[in-house]
From TrEMBL:
<dbReference type="GO" id="GO:0034599">
    <property type="term" value="P:cellular response to oxidative stress"/>
</dbReference>
<dbReference type="InterPro" id="IPR002109">
    <property type="entry name" value="Glutaredoxin"/>
</dbReference>
<dbReference type="InterPro" id="IPR014025">
    <property type="entry name" value="Glutaredoxin_subgr"/>
</dbReference>
<dbReference type="GO" id="GO:0015038">
    <property type="term" value="F:glutathione disulfide oxidoreductase activity"/>
</dbReference>
<keyword id="KW-0560">Oxidoreductase</keyword>
<feature type="region of interest" description="Disordered">
    <location>
        <begin position="104"/>
        <end position="134"/>
    </location>
</feature>
<dbReference type="GO" id="GO:0004791">
    <property type="term" value="F:thioredoxin-disulfide reductase (NADPH) activity"/>
</dbReference>
<dbReference type="InterPro" id="IPR036249">
    <property type="entry name" value="Thioredoxin-like_sf"/>
</dbReference>
<protein>
    <submittedName>
        <fullName>Thioredoxin reductase</fullName>
        <ecNumber>1.8.1.9</ecNumber>
    </submittedName>
</protein>
<feature type="domain" description="Glutaredoxin">
    <location>
        <begin position="21"/>
        <end position="84"/>
    </location>
</feature>
<keyword id="KW-1015">Disulfide bond</keyword>
<dbReference type="GO" id="GO:0005737">
    <property type="term" value="C:cytoplasm"/>
</dbReference>
<feature type="compositionally biased region" description="Low complexity">
    <location>
        <begin position="122"/>
        <end position="134"/>
    </location>
</feature>
<keyword id="KW-0676">Redox-active center</keyword>
<dbReference type="InterPro" id="IPR011767">
    <property type="entry name" value="GLR_AS"/>
</dbReference>
<dbReference type="Pfam" id="PF00462">
    <property type="entry name" value="Glutaredoxin"/>
</dbReference>
Length: 134
């Protein structure tokens, strides 16, 4: 795992802050697909970044930054309204018990999001149950 750089940490923070729901994932990760499907099923829009598809080839650095920021190195790594939520299991549980929507609608967390701002990245894809946005 590479050492994190300030630039990568700033990038990760801006990616989290740029979406109400941010999912860091890997395209090959079944837990990521599971979390993404559950979010779609609940009609929750989210911004997805598959770190293994980055043309910048900085996925390992992003993963290291996420570990530093959240103490979690696995993907998916999910953020809701500026709060770190966790992985797939945490996401499924929060969707099931209603705490996901409470977080979404409550006060923003430490990674404070900015609504309706699109942080563009060519390798970033977005998903929504209804439409593609962010
Ligand atoms: N229990 C975890 C499982 C997540 C997990 O094991 N993800 C794998 C990818 S499928 C991972 O991140 N492995 C380490 C890595 O890819 O660097 C969750 O609910 O998210």
């Amino acid at each position: 795992m590479p050492a994190t750089t300030k630039a990568t940490t700033a990038l990760v923070r801006s990616l989290i802050a740029s979406a109400r729901v941010r999912v860091f994932a890997k395209s090959t990760c079944p837990y990521c697909s599971q979390a993404e499907m559950a979010l779609k099923k609940h009609g929750i829009e989210f911004a997805l970044l598959n770190i293994d598809l980055r043309k910048e080839n900085d996925g390992s650095k992003i993963q290291a930054s996420l570990l530093e920021l959240t103490s979690q190195r696995t993907v998916p790594n999910v953020f809701v309204n500026g709060h770190h939520l966790g992985g797939c299991d945490d996401t499924l549980a929060a969707l099931a018990d209603g705490s996901f929507k409470k977080r979404l609608e409550g006060p923003p967390g430490e990674f404070a999001p900015v609504a309706d701002h699109d942080s563009a990245s060519e390798t970033e894809s977005s998903a929504s149950a209804a439409k593609a946005s962010i």
